[in-house]
Design brief:
Its EC number is 4.2.3.4. Keywords: Cobalt, Lyase, Metal-binding, NAD, Nucleotide-binding, Zinc. It is an enzyme of class 4 (lyase). Helices cover 49% and strands 17% of the residues. A four-stranded parallel β-sheet has the order 4-3-5-6. Strands 1-2-9 form a three-stranded mixed β-sheet. The longest helix has 20 residues, at 257-276. The chain folds into two domains: 4-168, Rossmann fold (3-Layer(aba) Sandwich); 171-353, Dehydroquinate synthase-like - alpha domain (Dehydroquinate synthase-like, alpha domain, Up-down Bundle). By secondary structure, it is of the alpha/beta class.
């Protein structure tokens, strides 16, 4: 399957991924090669990776972190930085990140800042990470429960997408990644949106490649998110606030990223209908699609108030304005839209009625 050329690196899929890693290590005289895993990928994914590498890529040291968004913070970075230092890592070392979006975001940030930057390679193991975190060079960690407040944009040497890892995931994790794939259709490609709505097999190499290609096209035009790249945040303004709120409240069951973003896309679909002319039929289609795949989430008035308060921390904000990405039609997104505060309650009311 053809590789995808990103801004300064390539995303290799399936057999090409395995060959690319072996060739890259063979031609670069790295002082040491380090592997970052979490407890899940250490157990379920590392043996498969080692089998595919057939002993041709050796790791000098392996470090395991705890899985989950709640561990994506600077304290975990401190542990990994210290480990690299203790193991004698230098600026000619390589860090390979084997895991989902939490691990590749954190590992990329660690590599980008250790000794002012060492090479890193991402090997995403979840569908979400393959179609979302694989492209764009965003690295970073959360600040408390606030998503991705600390980080840099820095590109890996390459990204290796091996769909075989998806067999290690439970269905909830796969569905979480599907939310981002649906988003790619909503913001750029109506035909892709329709094909995803009609398929029951979205976690395959061909569809994964299509989603990666869509995101790559957007990122290549705007690497530092000054313009069109912002459309990738559709559903994320309210979705990230929902994800953060549920993460920081012990009485709430935490939502996976895709689960929170699915709610966000219904809410922001409603705002798109009211403010940008998205048709009522398209709004209905968006709502029905996400509620077919994702459980309905209950919000009290207190929940809604707290979630809206979190919007002030969104990374797209500028000069005190909360900037939304909305849809004029399925496949056509617009950026930097301000929403009257009273409309948030209406959007949640629409979601509740669903």
């Amino acid at each position: 399957m053809e590789s995808i050329k990103s801004h300064s690196y390539e995303v290799h899929l399936e057999e090409l991924a395995e060959a690319a890693l072996r060739q890259h290590v063979a031609k670069n005289n790295y002082s040491k090669i380090f592997l970052l895993v979490d407890s899940n990928t250490h157990k379920h994914c590392l043996p498969l990776l080692q089998k595919k590498m057939q002993g041709k890529v050796q790791f000098d040291a392996i470090y395991e972190i705890k899985p989950g968004e709640e561990h994506k913070h600077i304290n975990t970075c401190m542990l990994v930085w210290q480990w690299l230092s203790d193991e004698g890592a230098d600026r000619k070392s390589l860090l390979i990140n084997l895991g989902g979006g939490v691990l590749t975001d954190l590992g990329g940030f660690v590599a980008s800042t250790f000794k002012r930057g060492i090479d890193f390679i991402n090997i995403p193991t979840t569908l979400l990470a393959m179609v979302d975190a694989s492209v764009g060079g965003k690295t970073g960690v959360d600040l408390g429960a606030l998503k991705n407040q600390i980080g840099v944009i820095n590109q890996p040497q390459m990204v290796l997408v091996i769909p075989d890892f998806l067999a290690t995931l439970e269905s909830r994790q796969l569905t979480s990644g599907f939310a981002e794939m649906l988003k790619h259709g909503l913001i750029t490609d109506q035909s892709y949106w329709q094909s995803l709505r009609e398929t029951k097999d979205y976690a395959n190499a061909t569809t994964i490649q299509k989603s990666i290609a869509i995101k790559n096209t957007v990122v290549a035009e705007d690497p530092t998110e000054q313009g069109i790249r912002k459309i990738l945040n559709f559903g994320h303004t309210l979705g990230h606030a929902i994800e953060s709120y549920f993460l920081e409240n012990p009485e709430k069951q935490s939502l996976l990223h895709g689960e929170a973003i699915a709610v966000g896309m219904i809410l922001e679909g409603y705002l798109s209908h009211k403010l940008q002319g998205l048709s009522a039929l398209s709004l209905q289609e968006i709502k029905e699609t996400f509620l077919t795949h994702f459980d309905h989430v209950m919000f009290s008035l207190e929940d809604i108030h707290s979630i809206v308060e979190l919007l002030k921390y969104d990374k797209k904000n500028a000069y005190g304005d909360i900037n939304f990405v909305l849809l004029q039609a399925i496949g056509k997104a617009v950026t930097d839209i301000q929403v009257p505060p009273e409309m948030f309650t209406d959007a949640f009311a629409y979601y509740k009625e669903a």
